[in-house]
Amino acid sequence: MLRLIGVILCAMLGPQIVQASPIRLKDLVEFDGVRTNDLVGYGLVVGLSGTGDGLRNAPFTEEIMVNVLERLGVNVTGEQFRPKNVAAVIVTASLPPFARAGSPIDVTVSAIGDASSLLGGTLIMTPLNAADGEIYAVAQGTIIAGGVTAQGDAAEVTQGVPTAGVIPSGATVEREVAFDLNALTSLRLALRTPDFTTASRIEAVINADFGRHVAMMLDSGTVQLDIGATHMPSPAHALGRIENLLVEPERKARVVVDQASGTIVMGEDVRISRVAVSQGNLTLRIEEAPLVSQPNPFSPGQTVVVPRTDVGIEQEPGIGLAEVSGGTSLSEVVAGLNALGVAPRDMIDILKSIKASGALHAEFIVR
């Protein structure tokens, strides 16, 4: 029955699953050594309109402010000051591959104290370090905050996240990553989703493009390219030639469900063996409505509370015992369940039960 409903619904709405199309090689793999590097720094934002850190709650803000002023030749030792227009922040950025000295990069600024907003603030010169402890960039500039806060005596409204913002092109690269691409004699292509079939297809497409054996699959996640066998002037020329080659990727049968939102995502290769499905909701309702019994005025007796209980069991409409024939696709089953009015969360429970029975042939992921 479910298969019939699914077929009818698919015929009415058109094809529900699009066949896999070839994807560019650059969208399937990462080139070994061609990668970004994360940078982080600790800095100070000034120029805030009374929305900065409370220095009593964030003593590290006062410490960095003193250090900055002393570097500028201002002696504040022993001085007592409590400004509200400064905030300590963490600055993060990503250093792109082959970034050269003087190149601008974007940075993200996030408050780490009790500042209520970074709107309108200016980040003071902040060095950005990589994992090796070396400084690779320096950030400075006006922050574009991601939200705004309005506050009155009895109410406060916050839209977005005013304690974090960005500075487009706010950092300048000062040191280049030591990586000589031209010195490589071979290059590994790392698949973002490891799969033996996809790696084999990548090997075949590259070899067919060059007309000789230049690529070899090492495992499900790696294909090695022999730069010398390509007869290209440099590794960069070889990568520029192969990165736009089209490959049809293969993927595992997988079902992903999100219980919080009731979302179900499935692949086209998911199949269900012969199985019977029955679903229904049983609701137990108990209501207490106590009745107060009070005697007439000046009469003997006392006030008592008489219990009144209303108990009921309701069986909500569900689907009866329905049989799914072998080889049915999951999309047809879900379409049939939708046609029967099954709620998304009930549908997730049904899919869990089908998986537990061993009839759902796919990786089942619950988030």
From TrEMBL:
Keywords: Bacterial flagellum, Cell projection, Cilium, Flagellum, Periplasm, Signal. GO terms for cellular component: bacterial-type flagellum basal body, distal rod, P ring; outer membrane-bounded periplasmic space. GO terms for molecular function: structural molecule activity. GO terms for biological process: bacterial-type flagellum-dependent cell motility. It comes from the Bacteria. It is found in: Bacterial flagellum basal body. InterPro entries: Flag_FlgI. The basal body constitutes a major portion of the flagellar organelle and consists of four rings (L,P,S, and M) mounted on a central rod. Assembles around the rod to form the L-ring and probably protects the motor/basal body from shearing forces during rotation. Belongs to the FlgI family. This is Flagellar P-ring protein. It comes from Loktanella fryxellensis.
